[in-house]
Design goal:
heterodimer, A: mainly alpha, about 80% helix, B: 3 helices
Chain lengths: ~130, ~90
C-alpha cells in the first residue's frame, strides 16, 4: 500500500515538474507577450496544482496530516491564476504592446476604437 | 526518495533562473510582469518541495499567503499599467 502511495505521489510531482519546465521553455522562446502569457498562465497553473496535490497526498498518506490549507491553496490558484493572466494581457494590449508580426487578425482593435469614439462623444454631455 | 525531491527542487530553481533571464531581458514592462507572476507560482512549488524535504507541515501556510500576495501584486500592477493609477478617485472629491 505504501508503494502504491509513493508511486502516485511521484507521478504527480513529476507531472508538475514537467509542466514547470515547459512553462520556462515557452516563456523564453515564444515571440511576444501574449503568447508568453498564454504559456505562463496555463501550464504553470496546471503544474503547480499537480505538484501541490502530490504534496497534499504525501502529507495525508505518509504523515497522517490532512492539510486543509493546501487544498485551499490549490483551489485559490485555480481561480486566480487565469484572472491574473487575463489582466496582464489586457494591460499589455491597452498600453500599446504590439503583437508579433505573424498575427493574422486583430478583432479587438476595432472594438477598442469604437468604444473610444463613443466615450469621447459621451464625455462633453456629462460635463 | 529524498534524492528525487532534491532533484525536483533543483529543477524548480533552475526554472526560476530562466524566468529571471526574461525579467532582466524582457523588451516591455508586461513581459516582466508575466515572468514575475510565473516566478511567484514557482516559489510556491519550491516551498512545497522544501516542506517535504524538511519533513514538516508548518510551511504550508506560507503557500496560501504567497498565492494571495502574488495575485494582489499582479492585479495592482496591471491596473497601474492600464490606467496609470491603482486606487481611483471617486466622482465627488
Amino acid at each position: 500500500m505504501d508503494l502504491i502511495a509513493d508511486i502516485i505521489i511521484v507521478l504527480l510531482v513529476t507531472v508538475g515538474i514537467i509542466f514547470t519546465i515547459v512553462t520556462v521553455i515557452g516563456i523564453l522562446r515564444l515571440p511576444d507577450v501574449y503568447t508568453r502569457a498564454h504559456a505562463a498562465s496555463k501550464s504553470a497553473t496546471l503544474g503547480v496544482m499537480s505538484l501541490l496535490l502530490g504534496v497534499f497526498l504525501h502529507f495525508w498518506w505518509n504523515e497522517g496530516h490532512f492539510s486543509v490549507a493546501l487544498l485551499l491553496g490549490i483551489v485559490f490558484l485555480f481561480i486566480t491564476s487565469p484572472i491574473g493572466g487575463h489582466l496582464m494581457t489586457r494591460a499589455a494590449y491597452m498600453s500599446g504592446v504590439q503583437p508579433t508580426e505573424l498575427t493574422v487578425g486583430d478583432d479587438l482593435k476595432e472594438a477598442v476604437k469604437e468604444q473610444r469614439k463613443e466615450s469621447d462623444k459621451n464625455t462633453p454631455d456629462d460635463e | 526518495m529524498n534524492l528525487f525531491y532534491s532533484v525536483c527542487l533543483v529543477l524548480v530553481i533552475l526554472s526560476m533562473l530562466g524566468l529571471l533571464y526574461r525579467v532582466w531581458k524582457g523588451p516591455s514592462v508586461p513581459d516582466r510582469l508575466v515572468a514575475l507572476d510565473a516566478i511567484g507560482v514557482m516559489l510556491i512549488s519550491a516551498i512545497a518541495l522544501l516542506s517535504i524535504l524538511f519533513d514538516t507541515p508548518f510551511f504550508i501556510d506560507a503557500i496560501l499567503l504567497i498565492a494571495i500576495m502574488s495575485f494582489i501584486g499582479t492585479v495592482s500592477f496591471s491596473k497601474f499599467i492600464e490606467r496609470g493609477e491603482i486606487i481611483e478617485r471617486g466622482p465627488n472629491r
